[in-house]
Amino acid sequence: MVVPTSDVPTTVEIPAQSGAVVTLAAGHRLKIIDIEGSQVADLFAVSASDLDEWLSVPVTRACTWRLFPAVGQSFFSTAYRPLLTFERDDSPGAHDMLEPPCSAEMYRAMAYAGYHPSCSENFRTAAVQVDWHPQSVPDPVNFFQRSPVEADGSFTALPALTSPGDSVTLRAETAVHVVVTACSMDLEPINGDHCTPLRLEVGP
Questions:
Q1: Is residue 75 part of a domain?
Q2: What is the pLDDT of residue 7?
Q3: Cβ pair 142, 155 in contact under 8 A
């Protein structure tokens, strides 16, 4: 679903193990709400004026000198331009920029037999609606995901700490298309006991 750029606030519901795309004008905001709690939100973004310039997690880490997102920082593109700014965090504050999106390949590597929905598939289903067709699925910003790094450099993905209604708010620094997926991983407990929906609020 694509939300037209306007000054009228819009709400988008993302069912469990699904995704959606929204369009933000420069200065507009996106609020991502964890409706039931313990649900990870994978976020991808691309410049609305150049579909070859998308949010790069490695570039963002290099520009911010941070492994994990923090309020006040920007998320940078492959061209080292800020696309979004992390404006507000109404959650316990655990977010991730280390893990790739779950994918069919990941589930096969985990010895899952048969079809399983994934953030990679849901990303492509949403991105095609704005004619975005990257050769590889970009690494996402995993809001609400808890992946603490230990002193020896190892890290583990743990259940999200969010409660129902917890949220994060981002501000667009330029016109962007943003894809958000409600993470599909249910073989490990990063989404609590089961995968649940998300809600997006878009507006000035």
A1: yes
A2: 66
A3: no
Please give the distance of CA 30 from its chain centroid, rounded to a whole number.
Answer: 11
Query: Which residue type, as a one-letter code, is found at position 90?
Result: D
Q: Is 178 helix (H, G, I), strand (E, B) or coil?
A: strand
Number of domains observed in the structure of the chain = 1
The answer to whether residues 121 and 196 touch, using CB atoms and an 8 Å cutoff, is no
pLDDT, residue 9, reads 76
| Rounded mean pLDDT for each run of 10 residues along the chain, 204 residues in total | 59 98 97 98 98 98 97 98 98 97 95 94 98 97 96 94 98 98 96 97 94
Residue-number span of the structural domain to which 172 is assigned: 10-149+156-203
What stretches of 25-120 adopt beta strand conformation (E)? 29-34, 41-47, 50-54, 74-76, 82-90
User: Is residue 1 domain-resident?
Assistant: no
Which residue shows structure tokens 């069919």?
104
- Residue 5 is assigned to a structural domain of this protein: no
Q: Model pTM greater than 0.85?
A: yes
